Amino acid sequence: MRWVENEGTRWLEADLPGAKAAFSTRSAGSVKESRDPLAAALGLPPDRIATAHQVHGANLSTRQEPTPEADGHVVTEPGWAALVFVADCLPIAVAGPDGVAILHCGWRGLAAGIVTRGVDAMGATHAAIGPGIGPCCYEVGDEVLDAFAGLGEGVASGRMLDLPEVARCLLREAGVEEIESADLCTSCEEVLFFSHRRDGGPGRQAGLVWLEEARG
After folding, report:
1. According to the model, what pLDDT value does residue 215 have?
2. Any idea where the domains of the chain sit in the sequence?
3. Of 65, 138, 169, 212, which sits 20 to 30 A from 76 (CA to CA)?
């Protein structure tokens, strides 16, 4: 994963098999208000970026069968991208022989199985985990801790949940072989990222994924 900057907009970019993922920063503004600055910097047509109303679930949307409420998007053809809005939840891009997907992963979505659904839909072998709230800042209650107790040691220390480690565990359990993680905390990095827990505001950054070329 590397930093890229264009037209005053800075983002993290990850290479996936036949695809790219991008994770925006505050430099693009709140993408929930407008995707245009980020789309321009990435060279993507704004009208070919799929989004949906996110409800912290495990539903996936496709271009062929779009749904108004979804926390994940599947992309199976070049020329289209998909985007999730995040401000502490993890944006996770997965890629495999059947295409790519971008997943909005808060604790509820992770507990509901969104990672397994996304991996299975793509036959995913690779994943990129974007910035999200880290174990340094994510204090949770018993309900959340209990949801991931089966993953064993390492996902929590006391009441501090390591959401990226939860995601890595679930990705490995689903059969993903290569996992790259930004390991940046949105709550700590105030200059770079919006954080709902820190600020309580409406600002959102984005996680996007798109195919680079047709697959033969």
Report:
1. 47
2. 2-133+175-211
3. 169
